[in-house]
Design a protein that fits this description.
This protein is an all-alpha fold. Helix content is 19%, strand content 0%. It is elongated and about 55 Å long.
Length: 62
Amino acid sequence: MTVPKCPICDRPREERFKPFCSKRCAQRDLGNWLNEDYAIPAIEAPEDEEEPSAPPTDERLH
């Protein structure tokens, strides 16, 4: 059976820090997200299309 590896450093991962091998690698990964080194691709709407409007609000709730 193959032991899964840490996505940051490729060492065997520790169950305690899953999916990482250590707190240090978990913190490095968090830092990468916070520094915007990682990004989730998005499909941008063409500029000639209007932004969707907010749904109507129920005035009785106010």
